[in-house]
Amino acid sequence: MSGVAISLLGDIAVLTLDNPPVNGFGSRQRRLLVEAIDAAVADPGVRAIVVTGAGEIFSGGADIREFGKPEAAASPNLRDVIGVAESCVKPVVAAINGTCMGGGLEFALGCHGRAALASALVALPEVKLGLLPGAGGTQRLPRAVGLEHAMNMIVSGEPVVARLLESTALFDAVVEQDVIAAATVVARKLADSGQPTPRLCDRVVEHDNAEAFIQFTRGVVHGQFPREPARLQCVEAVAGSLKPFTEGLSLERGLFVMLMASPESQALRHAFFAERAASKIPGVSADTPTRTISKVGVVGAGTMGGGISMNFLSAGIPVTLLDSTREALDRGVANIRRNYETSVKKGKLKPERLEQCMQMLRTSLDFGDLADCDLLIEAVFETMQVKREVFERMDAVAKPGAILASNTSTLNLDQIAGFTRRPQDVVGMHFFSPANVMKLLEVVRGKASAADVLATVMKLAKTIRKTAVLSLVCDGFIGNRMLEHYVRMANFLVEEGASPQQVDRALEAWGMAMGPYRVGDLAGNDIGWAIRKRRYVEKPTVRYSALGDRLCEQGRFGQKTGAGWYRYEPGKRDPLPDPQVDELIREHRKAIGVTPREFADAEIVERCIYALVNEGARLLAEGIAQRASDIDLVYLSGYGFPRWRGGPMKYADSVGLAMVARRMQQFASQPRGDAAFWQPAPLLAELAAQGKTFNDA
Ligand code: NAD
Hints:
Elements: E1 3-9, E2 12-18, H1 27-42, E3 48-53, E4 57-59, H2 78-86, E5 92-96, E6 99-101, H3 103-110, E7 113-117, E8 121-123, H4 137-145, H5 147-156, E9 160-161, E10 173-175, H6 179-192, H7 210-224, H8 229-239, H9 245-260, H10 263-277, E11 296-299, H11 303-314, E12 319-322, H12 326-345, H13 351-359, E13 361-364, E14 375-378, H14 384-397, E15 403-406, H15 413-417, E16 426-431, E17 440-445, H16 451-463, E18 467-472, H17 477-496, H18 500-510, H19 516-523, H20 525-538, H21 547-553, H22 579-592, H23 601-622, H24 628-638, H25 648-655, H26 657-668, H27 675-678, H28 682-690
Parallel strand pairs: 2-3, 3-5, 4-6, 5-7, 6-8, 7-10, 11-12, 11-14, 12-13, 14-15, 15-16, 17-18
Antiparallel strand pairs: 1-2, 8-9, 16-17
The chain binds nicotinamide-adenine-dinucleotide.
């Protein structure tokens, strides 16, 4: 239960915010704080008030559990609480004992003085949710730290360590320890001064060339974040701090209310909650025990095995890397070292850290060396025969209770689990390439995967800083199964008249980090080719464009062969249009009897994104994905989907499912429209008919 503890240090009342996990300003907490301040004011023995946080956090700001609920704005709201502190007749001083973010910092800014631990992080991160600080933060922070510091903090949302702001009016004291004692000194001084208590709202923002600075910032922010209105509105709100305080405050309010309703903010907030929801799995609760993972074995030292190993080494978990030949191991280790060296060169890793990581890496040719590993991850060739051999050997040597994981992208995990005598200990850990960089980890739940195995892997994902999303077993899991339809659609568009460059440009302008043809060239077009060859046999009635096959028949696998959908200068990665590809496309169209037509970028985007959405709806109906927001998270963290659009399912919800289904029907009736492709998934059709969203499903 949240609370505000009141204690007395002589003539100072110390109010301690206590609302785990981050001392958020929930509705009850706000009410209790006002009551505590009023009680301290009424107590004749109290001369001043110090407010601090329980544990190692001052306050993380708004209580996210109340987001979107009436409690979030219930009286007293945060602006009221800040007003109570700022207008208090006795000095109120914040003792910032640790992280102080968002509404937490806005409250501290309303106090008459502030003392902070030097290591405390302070931030106004609202922009990351497409908002701006709406409780006076944009007006008081510039008055405390100056226009430029405040602008940087508010537009970036990034935290700053208190030590770096020591010389500003934000802090009256910055100390290495005992911040309450320091705050008490500040509070007594204010009480003794006989002067009216100082308030940030009474100060003016000084800057030699404020107008020019703001104009310059507008330009930079507009150039860097053209599709994120909140960044620009943060600039305008901070610019408002040059006006009289109350005028600036009402400007801030107006902008805040406008942003709250913006689709970008709704999408960013959706993404924020999607991240929190993804860890909730049926049959796994907070009480589900987890297994200790202090040593990991990785089988296969290729592209994936190396990157997977780095995740654990970087988190301080020793790894034994196994392959079938010494050459493969040497190559794998050299790749790992080279990747770490690149980080050192970029200044992202200290040289001594590189050596520490490398020292935690052992190599082996003998499965017996994996006997003491708590988790064994297989990343060998993608054939069932090789997986069988490796899983049988892992099963033979692994200690009881060890988790056996497969990084397979397409093979049936239940069949793989069946190669062992412990299917309950088998799980999929589907990393994405490059595995040391990409955030996404699809955790694949087999029919027999035990709850504690899932709980352990979800927890471990946090340790290695991955975004874990649960998927049930199917070909391609969530991400790649949807991607197949997106790429199929891109290829139909090119067959019908668009160019690969136009498709890439249209989707990138819409917000995708990289268009499908640049991605294909990067990942290797041969991967899709191999999958299509399999599909031609498995699903002979499903229509695929053979254009990619024609490309691969010429050995154009992408960057690794110097040519793909684009051509590449030796040693360079810039995609250059290639007349040979244009010719290949022309010939292909002629061969299949297509007269090319012009495409608007908007149609390209709709057809590709709705192809994702339709397959997402099927995954949801089949229960492969637990919730629509999990699908969104897969695309946000693994496929370069723009966060400010919230993910494919959220995007479809924001367009409206009835309109999405209607557009699909229009696409189906086009001259080369594929009725089977555009048949709305039953769940989509049902929700569209009921006026509902995927989020409701
Ligand atoms: P890779 O060819 O680069 O590496 C495979 C490694 O496994 C090689 O070093 C090989 O020597 C070793 N190996 C093969 N048989 C072995 C055995 N019996 N015992 C020990 N070592 C053996 O392959 P990769 O791209 O790293 O892919 C590995 C797995 O990861 C595959 O299942 C693949 O589907 C999956 N995957 C790949 C990607 C990707 O983008 N490359 C992404 C996600 C998942």
